[in-house]
UniProtKB/TrEMBL annotation, chain A:
Residues 17-249 form the ABC transporter domain. GO terms for cellular component: plasma membrane. It comes from the Bacteria. It is a peripheral membrane protein. It comes from Asanoa hainanensis. This is ABC-2 type transport system ATP-binding protein. Its main location: membrane. One of its GO terms (molecular function) is ATP hydrolysis activity. It holds the Pfam family ABC_tran. Keywords: Antibiotic resistance, ATP-binding, Nucleotide-binding, Transport.
From TrEMBL, chain B:
It comes from Asanoa hainanensis. Keywords: Membrane, Transmembrane, Transmembrane helix. InterPro entries: ABC-2_transporter-like (IPR010390). The chain crosses the membrane at residues 20-41, 53-72, 110-129, 135-157, 169-188, 226-246. The lineage of its organism: Bacteria, Bacillati, Actinomycetota, Actinomycetes, Micromonosporales. This is ABC-2 type transport system permease protein. Pfam families: ABC2_membrane_6.
From TrEMBL, chain C:
This is ABC-2 type transport system permease protein. InterPro entries: ABC-2_transporter-like. The keyword Ubl conjugation does not apply. It comes from Asanoa hainanensis. PANTHER family: INTEGRAL MEMBRANE TRANSPORT PROTEIN, SLR0610 PROTEIN-RELATED. The chain crosses the membrane at residues 20-46, 58-77, 118-136, 142-169, 201-219, 231-251. It comes from the Bacteria. Keywords: Membrane, Transmembrane, Transmembrane helix.
Length: 320, 259, 263
């Protein structure tokens, strides 16, 4: 079942550009320029792209905060802007820097207020809160006013707040921005667990690609308002020519054999590295049998490299 | 000072909005005071004829943003965030530095906030043109003194932040007292003499607002005008000295307690 | 309804968590209105009539205005913080909740410390009613109750309209004060003290004359020196209706503007 769908989504903004000393011209800029999306129930989708690529604008249109200039959107079968308050009950939104919590109140009370605002039956509310408390370790700061929480603690509170009404879709805008390593892992672990249940559809924007690698099977890359990649991380690697690398370390010096479907990239007396260009790691290892091998490791391609190349505008080709 | 001028010239839209609002309040206050004069049935009320009252109101509306009675929390904000420590590292004394910035701000306000109501008022209301040539330079000096004095008072109010966590109490007290007892809502001479004279001598408040305006509309003969300005100057000296004393105490406290 | 109650409770709990500041605010807010009333007394120290009313009669106008403004300001006044919400993006967080934006904003920021001021305004009004020479009839008693209620709604509408300006003009700064606090000052005195186009604009164009002046004349049984018929005072509180309608339209247009520009 398609939970989020968008066709020909477009959003233009009018900006004033300074021309000369006093004159300003109005210019129309398309922040989102013809985006098509179809996200199925239970999917976890990473939505990435450089700053200003149109990520937040898309998210705002999907949540009903922004009216699209053109295109159709349907989220949970509703039209976001027209049915904004109805949609609000069925989605959860975490804006990285914009709190849903009451600054001067303890988390516990914020959660209680949200229960009334979303009109959640007490039993359901209690069950969800119990689960979040356990998974996110909320207990130690449940009675601390939000203003005194660390960023990581607050973000765990925000996640809980977004989930207490049992949303079908969770939108996350930069959920790990500014968090310390431990909090990042806690948030990721929680989201992974949430996604594994298959009940909640998750769409997150992020700059931290580790989020994507840990959480998302599917990746949408947006640049200049257009989707430039929609598929798995592997597909992205394949398309942008990133390879798995096999690193071979030796007990004593030996010559590296030539292997079809693998390219030698580094050779030192006690170590050589192959990029797999067609062969599997297993096929390569078979060919290496007989060498004085001390250790073999496989390095997964780094998505950062791929995306960095994408962002810097290096032309995309299908083979090196 | 130049930096202060430039910084405030970037808030162009807020300046337009502010000048508009000052002008609307000019109309409101002017009509009320003229109705008071009309209702009294005498040629003057407390020494003011209608032209003097109107001029008092409109120059007062212009002056409001120049002396800046309200809305300055820069020092208090820096104290709260702890940025104030950086001020101590600069070669110029904090009071001097903030004063220079404030004079730049006031200079900008003279152009953008003082001029509009002063030009608009006389279009719709009678206007008092000073008769004595000494009045205009004396008014200029008086405005400058009022600006410095008002800065000093605001500095002291802000500096309570060195000792208090929440300075809203002193802030609100200042906003209320300075407006009424400075002469913004009505000329202080409407009050009985037994109240006005001690108020003028024992507090800096009438020197903030009432003095320059009374000087301008020549409510007193020249010697009395001069004495009022001298009184203003005395308050300026006293308040600035107080600012430095407070600042020194605060710095000692900062150094001892480490902020 | 329970959702709104929850918002209100949250706000109450937040504010009272700073007990000292709350106390300071509670006291200082009374002073702001007290000084307005004090000013009226000072003016009457140098004159005997103001716009055709004596001190006691003028205080009915001032009291009605103070009561209406202070209550309207308490209930809706903090909507002017919308500029802050729009600038910091917190307005987005308001929009993704399952409640309309306006009541949310009003309740999220309801300044309970202004309760003292509203109570003070009501007291001034009651004392003024007692001191003035009013020939009480059931009709006048009803008007004495309805007029300030209409005034509260009217000022609420003014606050919403001036706050909506922020959707088009983010840097509007003090602009709104000209009509909110300016409206309070205007309605504190008999409309007959103003004249010319300024009076026409504020009194009849914007409708401020019907907040306190005309109802007060009807209570006092005095004719209007400007020349409007006597029944105007009796229907004056109805001015709240078109004001509310206009405010609703402008607010909605503002929200539409926000959701199409996102700034």
């Amino acid at each position: 079942m398609t939970v989020i769908s968008a066709r020909g989504l477009r959003k233009e903004f009018t900006v004033r550009v300074k021309v000369g000393r006093l004159r300003r011209d109005r210019r129309t800029v398309a922040a989102v320029d013809g985006v098509d999306l179809a996200i199925e129930r239970g999917e976890m989708v990473g939505y990435i792209g450089p700053n200003g690529a149109g990520k937040s604008t898309t998210l705002k249109m999907l949540t009903g905060v922004l009216t699209p200039t053109a295109g159709d959107i349907s989220v949970c079968g509703l039209s976001p802007v027209r049915q904004r308050t109805r949609l609000a009950r069925r989605i959860g939104v975490v804006f990285g820097q914009r709190s849903q919590l009451w600054w001067d109140l303890p988390l516990r009370e914020s959660f209680e207020l949200l229960r009334h605002i979303y009109r959640v039956p007490p039993a359901e509310h209690a069950a969800r809160l119990l689960r979040c408390r356990a998974l996110l370790d909320l207990d130690e700061f449940l009675d601390t006013p939000v203003r005194q929480l660390s960023l990581g603690q607050r973000m765990r509170g925000e996640l809980t707040a977004a989930l207490l009404h049992g949303p079908e879709v969770l939108f996350l805008d930069e959920p790990t921005i500014g968090l310390d390593v431990v909090s990042k892992q806690a948030v990721r672990g929680f989201l992974a667990e949430l996604g594994a249940t298959g009940d909640v559809t998750l769409m997150l924007t992020t700059h931290d690609l580790a989020d994507i690698e840990k959480l998302c099977r599917r990746l949408l890359v947006i640049d200049h308002g257009r989707v430039v990649h929609d598929g798995t991380i592997e597909a992205l690697h394949a398309r942008y020519g990133s390879r798995r690398r096999v690193v071979v370390e030796l007990e004593s010096p030996a010559a590296p054999p030539e292997v079809i479907g693998a390219t030698l990239v580094t050779v030192t007396p006690l170590r050589f590295e192959y990029d797999l260009t067609g062969a599997t790691a297993g096929e390569l290892l078979v060919r290496l049998a007989g060498l004085p091998i001390r250790d073999v490791s496989i390095v997964e391609p780094d998505i950062e490299d791929v995306v960095a190349r994408l962002y810097t505008g290096v032309p995309v080709t299908d083979a090196p | 000072m130049g930096a202060g001028f430039r910084r405030y010239s970037t808030y162009r839209q807020a300046t337009v909005a502010g000048a508009f609002t000052n002008t609307v309040f000019g109309f409101l206050r002017c009509y009320v005071l003229l109705a008071v004069a009309a209702g009294a049935g005498t040629a003057t009320v407390a020494g003011y004829d209608p032209a003097r009252l109107a001029t008092f109101v409109w120059f007062g509306q212009g002056l409001l943003a120049v002396v800046l009675l309200w809305g300055w929390t820069e020092l208090a904000d820096r104290i709260r965030t702890g940025d104030v420590v950086a001020d101590l590292l600069r070669p110029v004394h904090p009071v001097t530095r903030y004063l220079a910035t404030d004079l730049g701000r006031a200079g900008h306000a003279v152009v953008t906030r003082f001029v509009p109501p002063v030009l608009i008022g006389p279009l719709f209301f009678p206007f008092y043109v000073p008769h004595r040539w000494t009045t205009v330079p004396l008014f200029a000096v008086s405005v400058l003194l009022a600006t410095v004095l008002c800065f000093g008072c605001r500095y002291l109010v802000n500096a309570t932040g060195y000792w208090l966590l929440d300075i809203r109490g002193p802030m609100i007290l200042w906003a209320l007292v300075s407006g009424v007892l400075g002469g913004l809502y009505f000329p202080l001479r409407f009050l009985p003499d037994a109240l006005v004279v001690p108020l003028w001598v024992l507090t800096p408040l009438p020197s903030l607002f009432q003095t320059p305006l009374d000087v301008l509309v020549e409510i007193d003969p020249t010697p009395r005008q001069l004495w009022l300005v001298v009184l203003q100057a005395a308050w300026v000296v006293l308040v600035l000295v107080l600012c430095r004393v407070v600042q020194r105490r605060a710095e000692r406290r900062l150094v001892v307690q480490g902020g | 309804m329970r959702a709104y109650w929850a918002l209100l409770r949250g706000q109450a709990r937040s504010q009272t968590s700073y007990r000292l500041s709350f106390g300071i605010d509670l006291v200082s807010n009374v002073w702001a209105t007290a000084l307005d009333v004090f000013t009226v007394f000072v003016l009457f120290a140098v004159t005997r009539t103001l716009g055709g009313l004596d001190l006691h009669e003028a205080l009915v106008v001032t009291g009605m205005s103070a009561c209406a403004f202070a209550t309207g300001d308490m209930l809706v006044g903090n909507i002017e913080r919308i500029t802050l919400y729009v600038r910091t993006g917190r307005f987005d967080a308001v929009l993704v909740r399952p409640l309309p934006a306006l009541p949310q904003l009003v309740l999220l920021d309801l300044p309970l410390h202004k309760l003292s001021r509203a109570a003070f305004g009501a007291t001034v009004y009651l004392v003024a009613l007692g001191a003035a020479d009013i020939a009480w009839t059931p009709g006048r008693a009803l008007l004495a109750v309805i007029a300030p209620v209409g005034g509260v709604v009217f000022f609420g509408a003014v606050f919403v309209v001036t706050a909506s300006v922020a959707f088009w003009w983010t840097e509007s700064g003090e602009f709104g004060n000209a009509f909110t606090y300016g409206g309070r000052d205007f309605t504190s005195y008999p409309v007959s003290v103003y004249s010319g186009w300024f009076r026409n604009a504020f009194a009849y164009g914007l409708g401020f004359a019907f907040v306190s002046y005309y109802p007060a004349l009807a209570l006092l049984g005095k004719p209007d020196p400007i020349g409007l018929p006597g029944w105007v005072g009796w229907i004056a509180p109805l001015v709240a209706l078109p004001a509310t309608g206009a405010a609703a339209l402008i607010w909605r247009a503002g929200i539409r503007r926000y959701t199409s520009t996102g700034s």
